[in-house]
Amino acid sequence: MRKAGYHFNSDTLSFDKIESSLRKRLWRLFKKFFSSFSLAIVMLYLVYAFIDSPKEKLLKRKYEEVLTQYSLLSNKVEHLDNVLKDMESRDDNIYRVIFETDPIPSSIRRAGSGGVDQYEHLRQIDNADLIIGTAKKIDELSKAIYIQSKSFDKIEELAKNKIDMLASIPAILPVSLKDKNTHQVTSSFGYRMHPIYKTPKFHAGMDFTGTIGTPIYATGNGVVIESKFDKGYGRHVVIDHGFSYKTLYAHMDKILAKKGQKIKRGDVIGYLGNTGLSTGPHLHYEVRKNDKPIDPINFYFNDLTPDEFELLVETANNTGQSMD
Ligand SMILES: [Zn+2]
Q: What's the 293 CA to ligand 1 centre distance in angstroms?
Protein backbone atom coordinates (compact mmCIF):
# COMPACT_ATOMS: atom_id res chain seq x y z
CA MET A 1 0.00 0.00 0.00
CA ARG A 2 1.49 3.28 -1.10
CA LYS A 3 1.90 6.05 1.51
CA ALA A 4 -0.29 9.09 0.81
CA GLY A 5 1.46 12.43 0.13
CA TYR A 6 0.53 15.65 2.05
CA HIS A 7 0.98 19.30 1.30
CA PHE A 8 1.07 22.08 4.08
CA ASN A 9 -1.53 24.71 3.36
CA SER A 10 -0.37 28.04 4.92
CA ASP A 11 -3.79 29.58 4.49
CA THR A 12 -5.66 26.95 6.41
CA LEU A 13 -2.66 25.94 8.50
CA SER A 14 -3.42 22.34 7.81
CA PHE A 15 -2.07 19.44 5.78
CA ASP A 16 -3.94 18.81 2.60
CA LYS A 17 -3.78 15.37 1.09
CA ILE A 18 -2.17 15.43 -2.36
CA GLU A 19 -4.32 13.65 -4.82
CA SER A 20 -1.94 12.49 -7.59
CA SER A 21 -3.24 11.63 -11.02
CA LEU A 22 -3.12 8.09 -12.42
CA ARG A 23 -0.72 9.23 -15.09
CA LYS A 24 1.71 10.62 -12.54
CA ARG A 25 1.52 7.44 -10.49
CA LEU A 26 2.14 5.30 -13.52
CA TRP A 27 5.09 7.44 -14.47
CA ARG A 28 6.62 7.05 -11.00
CA LEU A 29 6.04 3.32 -11.18
CA PHE A 30 7.67 3.13 -14.56
CA LYS A 31 10.74 5.09 -13.36
CA LYS A 32 11.19 2.77 -10.41
CA PHE A 33 10.80 -0.28 -12.59
CA PHE A 34 13.23 1.09 -15.17
CA SER A 35 15.93 1.92 -12.63
CA SER A 36 15.62 -1.55 -11.03
CA PHE A 37 15.74 -3.16 -14.44
CA SER A 38 18.87 -1.21 -15.48
CA LEU A 39 20.56 -2.14 -12.26
CA ALA A 40 19.73 -5.79 -12.88
CA ILE A 41 21.18 -5.60 -16.40
CA VAL A 42 24.40 -4.06 -15.11
CA MET A 43 24.65 -6.70 -12.38
CA LEU A 44 24.02 -9.51 -14.87
CA TYR A 45 26.62 -8.11 -17.25
CA LEU A 46 29.20 -7.96 -14.45
CA VAL A 47 28.38 -11.51 -13.39
CA TYR A 48 28.67 -12.88 -16.94
CA ALA A 49 31.76 -10.90 -17.74
CA PHE A 50 33.82 -11.87 -14.76
CA ILE A 51 32.40 -15.08 -13.37
CA ASP A 52 31.96 -18.29 -15.45
CA SER A 53 28.86 -20.36 -15.15
CA PRO A 54 29.38 -24.07 -14.33
CA LYS A 55 28.46 -24.92 -17.93
CA GLU A 56 31.02 -22.46 -19.27
CA LYS A 57 33.64 -23.85 -16.94
CA LEU A 58 32.94 -27.37 -18.27
CA LEU A 59 33.11 -26.24 -21.91
CA LYS A 60 36.36 -24.38 -21.30
CA ARG A 61 37.89 -27.45 -19.68
CA LYS A 62 36.78 -29.63 -22.60
CA TYR A 63 38.25 -27.14 -25.06
CA GLU A 64 41.58 -27.18 -23.22
CA GLU A 65 41.53 -30.98 -23.29
CA VAL A 66 40.88 -31.05 -27.05
CA LEU A 67 43.72 -28.59 -27.57
CA THR A 68 46.09 -30.71 -25.50
CA GLN A 69 45.08 -33.87 -27.39
CA TYR A 70 45.64 -32.07 -30.67
CA SER A 71 49.13 -31.01 -29.62
CA LEU A 72 49.90 -34.62 -28.60
CA LEU A 73 48.58 -35.83 -31.96
CA SER A 74 50.77 -33.32 -33.74
CA ASN A 75 53.80 -34.63 -31.83
CA LYS A 76 52.92 -38.20 -32.79
CA VAL A 77 52.70 -37.21 -36.46
CA GLU A 78 56.12 -35.58 -36.09
CA HIS A 79 57.46 -38.82 -34.59
CA LEU A 80 56.01 -40.91 -37.45
CA ASP A 81 57.60 -38.53 -39.90
CA ASN A 82 61.00 -39.14 -38.29
CA VAL A 83 60.48 -42.93 -38.46
CA LEU A 84 59.61 -42.62 -42.14
CA LYS A 85 62.65 -40.40 -42.81
CA ASP A 86 64.82 -43.12 -41.25
CA MET A 87 63.22 -45.73 -43.54
CA GLU A 88 63.76 -43.47 -46.55
CA SER A 89 67.39 -42.99 -45.69
CA ARG A 90 67.94 -46.77 -45.29
CA ASP A 91 66.11 -47.34 -48.56
CA ASP A 92 68.29 -44.84 -50.45
CA ASN A 93 71.62 -45.60 -48.81
CA ILE A 94 71.46 -49.36 -48.16
CA TYR A 95 68.77 -51.26 -50.07
CA ARG A 96 69.09 -49.30 -53.29
CA VAL A 97 72.90 -49.48 -53.12
CA ILE A 98 72.78 -53.29 -52.69
CA PHE A 99 70.58 -53.62 -55.74
CA GLU A 100 72.53 -51.02 -57.74
CA THR A 101 69.58 -48.68 -58.18
CA ASP A 102 69.58 -44.90 -57.93
CA PRO A 103 68.13 -43.31 -54.77
CA ILE A 104 64.74 -41.60 -55.13
CA PRO A 105 65.30 -37.82 -55.41
CA SER A 106 63.96 -35.85 -52.45
CA SER A 107 61.98 -33.67 -54.88
CA ILE A 108 59.86 -36.78 -55.56
CA ARG A 109 59.93 -38.25 -52.06
CA ARG A 110 58.87 -35.00 -50.39
CA ALA A 111 56.88 -33.24 -53.08
CA GLY A 112 54.83 -30.29 -51.73
CA SER A 113 51.18 -30.76 -50.83
CA GLY A 114 49.88 -28.52 -53.62
CA GLY A 115 49.23 -24.93 -52.53
CA VAL A 116 47.77 -23.37 -49.41
CA ASP A 117 44.21 -23.11 -50.73
CA GLN A 118 43.16 -26.59 -49.69
CA TYR A 119 43.56 -25.59 -46.03
CA GLU A 120 41.80 -22.23 -46.41
CA HIS A 121 38.54 -23.55 -44.91
CA LEU A 122 40.43 -24.27 -41.69
CA ARG A 123 41.54 -20.63 -41.38
CA GLN A 124 38.32 -19.66 -39.56
CA ILE A 125 38.87 -22.13 -36.72
CA ASP A 126 40.52 -21.11 -33.46
CA ASN A 127 44.15 -22.27 -33.30
CA ALA A 128 44.14 -22.48 -37.09
CA ASP A 129 47.96 -22.65 -37.27
CA LEU A 130 48.12 -25.78 -35.14
CA ILE A 131 45.29 -27.49 -37.06
CA ILE A 132 46.54 -26.50 -40.53
CA GLY A 133 50.09 -27.48 -39.60
CA THR A 134 48.96 -30.94 -38.47
CA ALA A 135 46.64 -31.46 -41.47
CA LYS A 136 49.48 -30.50 -43.81
CA LYS A 137 51.93 -32.84 -42.09
CA ILE A 138 49.47 -35.76 -42.28
CA ASP A 139 48.93 -35.13 -46.01
CA GLU A 140 52.68 -35.00 -46.65
CA LEU A 141 53.19 -38.14 -44.60
CA SER A 142 50.49 -40.00 -46.54
CA LYS A 143 52.17 -39.12 -49.84
CA ALA A 144 55.65 -40.02 -48.58
CA ILE A 145 54.37 -43.37 -47.22
CA TYR A 146 52.80 -44.14 -50.61
CA ILE A 147 56.09 -43.39 -52.40
CA GLN A 148 58.02 -45.47 -49.86
CA SER A 149 55.68 -48.45 -50.24
CA LYS A 150 56.11 -48.26 -54.05
CA SER A 151 59.86 -48.19 -53.51
CA PHE A 152 59.71 -51.34 -51.36
CA ASP A 153 57.71 -53.06 -54.13
CA LYS A 154 60.54 -52.20 -56.50
CA ILE A 155 63.18 -53.43 -54.01
CA GLU A 156 61.26 -56.70 -53.60
CA GLU A 157 61.24 -57.16 -57.36
CA LEU A 158 64.98 -56.38 -57.54
CA ALA A 159 65.67 -58.83 -54.70
CA LYS A 160 63.78 -61.62 -56.47
CA ASN A 161 65.66 -60.76 -59.64
CA LYS A 162 68.96 -60.74 -57.75
CA ILE A 163 68.27 -64.20 -56.25
CA ASP A 164 67.49 -65.42 -59.75
CA MET A 165 70.64 -63.75 -61.11
CA LEU A 166 72.85 -65.17 -58.35
CA ALA A 167 71.54 -68.65 -59.15
CA SER A 168 72.03 -68.14 -62.88
CA ILE A 169 75.39 -66.50 -63.48
CA PRO A 170 78.37 -68.91 -63.57
CA ALA A 171 79.78 -69.34 -60.07
CA ILE A 172 81.43 -72.77 -59.72
CA LEU A 173 84.19 -74.79 -61.39
CA PRO A 174 82.97 -76.92 -64.31
CA VAL A 175 85.05 -79.88 -63.02
CA SER A 176 85.95 -80.85 -59.49
CA LEU A 177 89.50 -79.79 -58.63
CA LYS A 178 89.46 -81.58 -55.27
CA ASP A 179 91.68 -84.39 -56.58
CA LYS A 180 94.75 -82.50 -57.81
CA ASN A 181 96.17 -85.62 -59.50
CA THR A 182 93.37 -86.03 -61.94
CA HIS A 183 92.44 -82.41 -62.74
CA GLN A 184 94.50 -79.34 -63.26
CA VAL A 185 94.21 -76.00 -64.94
CA THR A 186 96.61 -76.17 -67.82
CA SER A 187 95.75 -73.03 -69.68
CA SER A 188 94.14 -69.79 -68.75
CA PHE A 189 92.42 -66.88 -70.47
CA GLY A 190 94.58 -64.62 -72.66
CA TYR A 191 97.27 -64.92 -75.33
CA ARG A 192 98.78 -68.43 -75.29
CA MET A 193 100.98 -70.39 -77.65
CA HIS A 194 98.68 -72.49 -79.83
CA PRO A 195 99.63 -76.19 -79.55
CA ILE A 196 99.02 -76.95 -83.18
CA TYR A 197 99.77 -73.68 -85.00
CA LYS A 198 102.68 -72.84 -82.58
CA THR A 199 101.85 -69.12 -82.77
CA PRO A 200 100.51 -66.85 -80.00
CA LYS A 201 96.74 -67.04 -80.19
CA PHE A 202 94.04 -65.60 -77.99
CA HIS A 203 92.71 -68.32 -75.70
CA ALA A 204 89.12 -67.39 -74.89
CA GLY A 205 88.65 -69.73 -71.91
CA MET A 206 90.32 -72.02 -69.40
CA ASP A 207 91.51 -75.58 -69.99
CA PHE A 208 91.11 -78.26 -67.33
CA THR A 209 92.92 -81.56 -67.91
CA GLY A 210 91.50 -84.81 -66.57
CA THR A 211 90.74 -88.40 -67.35
CA ILE A 212 88.17 -89.16 -70.02
CA GLY A 213 84.74 -89.68 -68.47
CA THR A 214 85.14 -87.14 -65.65
CA PRO A 215 81.76 -85.40 -64.98
CA ILE A 216 81.35 -81.83 -66.23
CA TYR A 217 79.00 -79.58 -64.26
CA ALA A 218 76.79 -76.69 -65.38
CA THR A 219 78.17 -73.65 -63.58
CA GLY A 220 74.84 -71.80 -63.28
CA ASN A 221 71.10 -72.20 -63.93
CA GLY A 222 70.05 -71.76 -67.53
CA VAL A 223 68.85 -73.30 -70.77
CA VAL A 224 70.94 -75.41 -73.16
CA ILE A 225 71.08 -73.57 -76.49
CA GLU A 226 73.70 -75.74 -78.20
CA SER A 227 74.41 -79.45 -77.82
CA LYS A 228 76.31 -80.78 -80.83
CA PHE A 229 79.57 -81.73 -82.48
CA ASP A 230 81.77 -79.56 -84.65
CA LYS A 231 85.35 -79.86 -85.86
CA GLY A 232 86.80 -77.20 -83.54
CA TYR A 233 85.00 -77.66 -80.21
CA GLY A 234 84.19 -81.34 -80.78
CA ARG A 235 81.21 -82.40 -78.69
CA HIS A 236 80.18 -79.24 -76.88
CA VAL A 237 77.38 -77.59 -74.96
CA VAL A 238 76.45 -73.89 -74.69
CA ILE A 239 74.20 -72.78 -71.83
CA ASP A 240 72.35 -69.45 -71.84
CA HIS A 241 72.13 -68.24 -68.22
CA GLY A 242 70.17 -65.07 -68.95
CA PHE A 243 71.41 -61.68 -67.63
CA SER A 244 73.63 -61.67 -70.80
CA TYR A 245 75.78 -64.63 -69.62
CA LYS A 246 76.56 -67.82 -71.56
CA THR A 247 79.01 -70.67 -70.92
CA LEU A 248 80.67 -73.10 -73.32
CA TYR A 249 81.92 -76.60 -72.47
CA ALA A 250 84.01 -78.12 -75.28
CA HIS A 251 85.79 -81.37 -76.34
CA MET A 252 83.39 -83.61 -74.37
CA ASP A 253 83.54 -87.36 -74.72
CA LYS A 254 79.79 -87.72 -74.20
CA ILE A 255 77.01 -85.11 -73.94
CA LEU A 256 74.08 -85.58 -71.54
CA ALA A 257 72.35 -82.18 -71.86
CA LYS A 258 69.89 -81.75 -74.71
CA LYS A 259 69.14 -78.56 -76.63
CA GLY A 260 66.28 -76.65 -74.96
CA GLN A 261 66.78 -78.45 -71.63
CA LYS A 262 66.55 -76.40 -68.45
CA ILE A 263 69.65 -76.83 -66.34
CA LYS A 264 70.42 -76.19 -62.69
CA ARG A 265 73.85 -75.26 -61.36
CA GLY A 266 75.77 -78.45 -60.55
CA ASP A 267 73.87 -80.68 -63.01
CA VAL A 268 76.14 -83.07 -64.92
CA ILE A 269 75.86 -82.03 -68.59
CA GLY A 270 78.43 -84.45 -70.04
CA TYR A 271 81.84 -86.09 -69.60
CA LEU A 272 85.35 -84.86 -70.24
CA GLY A 273 86.88 -86.01 -73.52
CA ASN A 274 89.29 -85.32 -76.38
CA THR A 275 86.99 -84.57 -79.31
CA GLY A 276 87.46 -81.78 -81.89
CA LEU A 277 90.63 -79.72 -82.16
CA SER A 278 92.33 -80.94 -78.98
CA THR A 279 95.80 -82.23 -78.09
CA GLY A 280 94.74 -84.32 -75.09
CA PRO A 281 91.79 -85.09 -72.81
CA HIS A 282 90.61 -81.78 -71.34
CA LEU A 283 87.68 -79.45 -70.91
CA HIS A 284 87.79 -76.08 -72.65
CA TYR A 285 85.50 -73.79 -70.64
CA GLU A 286 84.39 -70.29 -71.62
CA VAL A 287 82.29 -67.63 -69.91
CA ARG A 288 80.74 -65.08 -72.27
CA LYS A 289 79.05 -61.83 -71.42
CA ASN A 290 77.07 -60.21 -74.25
CA ASP A 291 78.62 -62.91 -76.45
CA LYS A 292 82.17 -61.72 -75.68
CA PRO A 293 84.49 -64.15 -73.86
CA ILE A 294 85.62 -62.95 -70.43
CA ASP A 295 88.09 -64.46 -67.96
CA PRO A 296 86.36 -67.43 -66.22
CA ILE A 297 88.72 -67.10 -63.24
CA ASN A 298 86.38 -64.45 -61.79
CA PHE A 299 83.42 -66.85 -61.80
CA TYR A 300 84.37 -69.51 -59.26
CA PHE A 301 83.33 -67.59 -56.14
CA ASN A 302 80.84 -70.19 -54.91
CA ASP A 303 83.08 -73.18 -54.29
CA LEU A 304 86.59 -71.89 -53.66
CA THR A 305 88.12 -70.63 -50.41
CA PRO A 306 90.36 -67.54 -50.76
CA ASP A 307 93.45 -69.81 -50.49
CA GLU A 308 92.20 -72.20 -53.15
CA PHE A 309 91.38 -69.26 -55.38
CA GLU A 310 94.86 -67.79 -54.95
CA LEU A 311 96.41 -71.16 -55.83
CA LEU A 312 94.20 -71.43 -58.91
CA VAL A 313 95.19 -67.92 -60.06
CA GLU A 314 98.87 -68.80 -59.56
CA THR A 315 98.53 -72.07 -61.50
CA ALA A 316 96.60 -70.33 -64.27
CA ASN A 317 99.26 -67.61 -64.57
CA ASN A 318 102.04 -70.17 -64.92
CA THR A 319 100.45 -72.11 -67.76
CA GLY A 320 102.13 -72.07 -71.13
CA GLN A 321 100.46 -73.17 -74.31
CA SER A 322 96.80 -74.03 -74.51
CA MET A 323 95.45 -77.47 -75.33
CA ASP A 324 93.20 -76.34 -78.16
ZN1 LIG B 1 91.01 -74.18 -74.28
A: 12
Residue 219 and residue 296: Cα distance in Å, rounded? 11
Residue 297 C-alpha to ligand 1 middle, in angstroms?
13
User: What separation in Å is there between the alpha carbon of 259 and the centre of ligand 1?
Assistant: 22
Q: How far is the CA of 23 from the centre of ligand 1 (A)?
A: 137
Q: What is the pLDDT along the chain (324 residues), one digit of tens a residue?
A: 556 677 788 888 888 877 778 888 899 899 999 999 999 999 988 887 888 888 888 999 998 998 899 889 889 999 999 999 998 988 888 888 888 888 888 888 887 766 657 888 888 888 888 888 888 889 889 999 999 999 999 989 988 898 999 999 999 999 987 766 556 777 788 887 777 777 888 889 999 988 999 999 999 999 999 999 999 999 999 999 999 999 999 999 999 999 999 999 999 999 999 999 998 999 999 999 999 999 998 898 877 788 888 888 887 777 667 778
Span from the CA of 302 to the centroid of ligand 1 (angstroms)? 22
Q: Which residues on neighbouring strands pair with residue 283, listed in sequence order?
A: 208
CA distance to 190, 279, 285, per residue, from 194 (Å)? 11, 10, 16
Query: Residue 146 burial by CB count (10 A; 0-12/13-18/19+): exposed, middle or buried?
Result: exposed
- State the distance from the centre of ligand 1 to the C-alpha of 226, rounded, in angstroms: 18
From ligand 1's centre to the CA of 284, what distance in Å? 4
Ligand 1 center to 261 CA (angstroms): 25
- What's the gap in Å between 207 CA and the centre of ligand 1? 5
Question: How is residue 8 annotated by DSSP?
Answer: E
The answer for residues whose C-beta is within 8 angstroms of residue 183's C-beta and 6 or more apart is 175, 176, 177, 208, 209, 210, 214
